[in-house]
Amino acid sequence: MGIEFRGVTKKYPDGTVAVDDLNLTIEDGTITVFVGPSGCGKTTSLRMINRMVEPTSGTILLDGADVRDSDAALLRRGIGYVIQHAGLFPHRTVLSNVATVPLLSGWDKRKARERAAELLETVGLPAELGKRYPAQLSGGQQQRVGVARALAADSPVLLMDEPFSAVDPVVREGLQDELLRLQSQLGKTIVFVTHDIDEAVRLGDKVAVLRVGGRLAQYGTPADVLRHPVDDFVAGFVGKDRGYRGLSFLSAGDVLVEDVPTVRVGGAPGESADWRLAVNDEGEPRGWLPPSSTVDGELSESDLVAGGSLYQQGTPIRGALDAALSSPASLGVVVDADGKAIGVVTARQVLDVIENHPQGVTR
Amino acid sequence: MSFLDELGQYLGSANNREQIVDTLAEHCYLALLPLVLGIVLAIAIGWLGRAWPRARGVILVLANLVYTIPSLALFVVIPSLIGTKMLDSINVVVALTLYTAALLVRPVLDALDAVPPAVIASATAMGYRPARRFLTVELPLAVPVLAAGVRVASVSNISLVSVGALIGVGGLGVLFTDGFQREYFSPIVVGIVLTLLLALVVDLLLVLLRRLLTPWDRTPAPVKTEVAA
Ligand SMILES: Nc1ncnc2c1ncn2[C@@H]1O[C@H](COP(=O)(O)OP(=O)(O)OP(=O)(O)O)[C@@H](O)[C@H]1O
Ligand SMILES: [Mg+2]
């Protein structure tokens, strides 16, 4: 279901113009991210889609139909919504929270609860959590419940207002990955609001940068916005390290993965003048054995130098550069999807690929 | 004759015992029915105050005014306002309903204000219509704050019922007027003790009811940190 903003303006009664003549087409089955500084009208824009805020002028079309032609409550039951800080109902168990929309839509209790239990699994929460109250969950778990509750409508459209802003960066990254995984299965039309450009670039198929006063500054693919900011405002907003961020969009398919001598943890390493990669029985990297180190008997993990970050084959090249630069051996460890080490790359090789890329960094 | 002998004699009479049980039952009815009606009325007024913020100031001033009217005056005035007979127990019920509502309007508004806006917004976003949202989301979440006010109102009602004895409808208060007229201590003491006991028991029941209504409010503090979601 596509969404179209046609000349949409919102002026609050106190005179604040929150959104100014917004024209934007959100394509079916994509993630579109509204990003911009605080107060630029992101939440207002989002809430006009499900009529929690009514525009002062202009039209919003959902799948070609003016949203104002639908009953507001019914329209909302058909649109998933994730609110900042999850906004869970504190007085209902996790399961009832997730079952909210099915129950409102008149499903019978048993069916609604079954659906809710299914969704807990979908968002990666153990079934036992269903009996708890929201206050008994961690921040990250609450966000997941918020997402499960929004999915319960099984609507083709999902609106998400800074859903991950209240959790720490590590948890946030996990939730973002999860969202991308879900989206690859569900293919919904997602409108996602954030003020974090990194999150926007990571999640968005398209990014809409808004400036204060509710004006659309730029709308395009993340690579586009990073590489060709239309003006100083967008350039300043995407930041100085946008070149490095742009690496997120360059595939590392051309980087040559080289073999590296390995030793097995628990085996007898012998001696060598080179850095050697220690792997466990499953072939997963455990660390590095420095050149000419002597080990008595079996190699144990305490003999090793901790490794740098790992680069999973097929993911953006930014990770390969990270891996090479953070490795004690200056060799970035490349792993396959199962986490098995398959070789190494050097920073030089990665930079060669970047420099020789026909258009520099693009998607 | 010692006081205990007098008390024994008083309680020994089947007539007296019957009067005690009757007045106690009447006291419960006269205190608790207005409590329930007053809560409902206060919630309705609170809903108005939320829906129509400009009316709030007026509502709170009126509530204060009503609560300052002396109870005896109200008991006497009500029959002429609603056309009931002077000795009708309805008068006491109406008067105490007004007091309860007046006392609870502010706690109701405070309790509704304390419901997190994000929760209300998310209920709206899920597709609740306003009336259902109020009854099934906002009101249950208001219970913890509201409960404190209800306990105060219940004690206030139980003590005010006795004043009704002066117009002939007063539950255990009738024992006081009787005792005074006959210069007889025992009914007064029994009346006081039973009033206190009733207040205690009702308070205890209200505490239990609140616990029953808010199982979610007994949870430990939220987990603040975590390694992974
Ligand atoms: N109900 C309201 N009444 C008056 N002004 C409002 C109202 N809601 C929002 N505004 C104003 O409209 C502008 C846009 O607000 P909005 O909440 O859409 O911004 P936002 O981009 O979501 O900001 P944030 O990142 O801080 O959430 C702000 O200046 C805000 O103060
Ligand atoms: Mg916002």
TrEMBL record, chain A:
Species: Prauserella flavalba
PROSITE patterns referenced in this protein's UniProt entry, alphabetically: ABC_TRANSPORTER_1, ABC_TRANSPORTER_2
Nucleotide-binding found in the keyword field: yes
Family: Belongs to the ABC transporter superfamily.
Keywords: ATP-binding, Nucleotide-binding, Transport
GO molecular function terms noted in the UniProt entry: ABC-type quaternary ammonium compound transporting activity; ATP binding; ATP hydrolysis activity
Domain of life: Bacteria
Protein's UniProt name: ABC-type quaternary amine transporter
Automatic annotation (TrEMBL), chain B:
Pfam families: BPD_transp_1
Compartments (UniProt record): Cell membrane; Membrane
Gene Ontology biological-process annotations: glycine betaine transport; transmembrane transport
Gene3D superfamilies: MetI-like (1.10.3720.10)
Leader sequence residues: none
Keyword annotations: Membrane, Transmembrane, Transmembrane helix, Transport
Superkingdom, taxonomy of origin: Bacteria
Transmembrane segments: 29-49, 55-78, 90-108, 152-176, 188-209
GO cellular component, one term: plasma membrane
Ribosomal protein among keywords: no
Topology with respect to the bilayer: Multi-pass membrane protein
ABC transmembrane type-1 domain span: 20-206
Main subcellular localisation: membrane
Assigned protein family: Belongs to the binding-protein-dependent transport system permease family.
Protein name: ABC transporter permease
Species this protein is from: Prauserella flavalba
